[in-house]
Write a structure and sequence with these properties.
By secondary structure, the protein is mostly helical. It is about 75% helix and about 5% strand. It has a two-stranded antiparallel ribbon with strand order 1-2. A two-stranded antiparallel sheet has the order 3-4.
């Protein structure tokens, strides 16, 4: 069933969009990531212009994250205090990111920037996550019946000033690192149309030392507000939010997030991370190929920007 998207100016199969939304919703529930880092490139692949994909995807992430967060609230695995600190940084970063996005859009370079950002970030994050997850699985196998796990080491993060107690996470650390993580994620949210969970989740575990069980819910809590704010800025300054596309992705995403949260509980954290890392690397490879290979119709590049 073909449906015309007014802002994107293309016709797409409605069931394909519902399916993509559902798939990304499942990932959102399983991994605590908004899923935009996979959905936005998938939208490029089916012919949605990058500027529209970025702005509209931020909208879909709000819904699937909200759906996922409700499940985590019921389990009491959301650190609201930490989420609020990350949020302050995130809103600041999102405002900065939209300014950069609008400037590049006026220069006509935004499509290339968005795709290059994806290739670089997905390549780095996917590789690091894959190596770390494989090591974690090896350790888990080796540690069965072995020595007890060591206590977490004190790092430079613990030496910083402006300390605050985060009871749900069992932490007493400076608010500076969470604020910086929030700002970076906000900038990425605006430029790449992502929730930023694929950076935030590893940062919360390895940099801030948060327990894995509260990371997913806290990440989703912050993502809801930052991506909501980003969508509003894009809608009012760029006019690139396609409501028809957003609604179809939303419906799929909300259903998928509930399924994903249930699957996530049944699987081991290391197995989940290996799966996520492999998906990230596959999407990165496809995007890099698309940028490197000559398009079949050279005119399609010019036509995209012209009238």
């Amino acid at each position: 069933m073909q449906i015309y998207l007014p802002i994107a100016e293309v016709s797409v199969n409605a069931f394909l969009l519902l399916g993509l939304g559902g798939m990304v919703g499942i990932l959102s529930g399983m991994f605590g990531v908004g899923g935009g880092f996979l959905m936005t490139p998938l939208l490029f692949f089916i012919g949605i212009p990058p500027a529209v994909a970025v702005a509209t995807e931020a909208n879909q992430i709000v819904a699937s994250s909200f759906s996922g967060v409700l499940a985590h609230f019921r389990r009491k695995t959301v650190d609201l205090k930490m989420g609020t600190v990350l949020l302050v940084g995130g809103l600041t970063g999102a405002a900065l990111g939209v300014v950069v996005f609008n400037y590049l859009k006026s220069l006509g370079q935004v499509d290339l920037l968005v795709k290059l950002c994806y290739v670089v970030f997905l390549g780095i994050i996917g590789s690091l996550m894959f190596v770390e997850s494989v090591n974690a699985i090896r350790k888990a196998r080796g540690a069965a019946g072995g020595a007890p796990a060591k206590r977490r080491q004190r790092t430079w993060v613990h030496a910083l000033p402006m300390k605050m107690r985060f009871r749900t996470s069992g932490l007493y650390i400076s608010v500076i690192p969470p604020l910086i993580v929030g700002v970076l994620v906000g900038i990425l949210s605006a430029i790449m149309g992502v929730g930023g969970g694929f950076i935030m989740v590893p940062a919360m575990i390895y940099l801030l030392g948060m327990p894995t069980k509260v990371v997913v819910g806290t990440s989703l809590f912050q993502i809801i507000f930052v991506t909501g704010f980003t969508t509003m800025l894009h809608a009012t300054t760029n006019y690139t939010v396609d409501v028809v596309l957003a609604v179809l992705l939303l419906v799929g995403g909300v259903i998928g997030a509930q399924i994903g949260t249930r699957i996530g509980v049944k699987m081991k954290a290391e197995q989940l991370r290996v799966l996520l890392a492999m998906m990230v690397l596959v999407v990165c490879g496809k995007l890099a190929l698309d940028l490197l290979l000559q398009p079949s119709e050279l005119y399609s590049l010019g036509a995209a920007g012209g009238h």
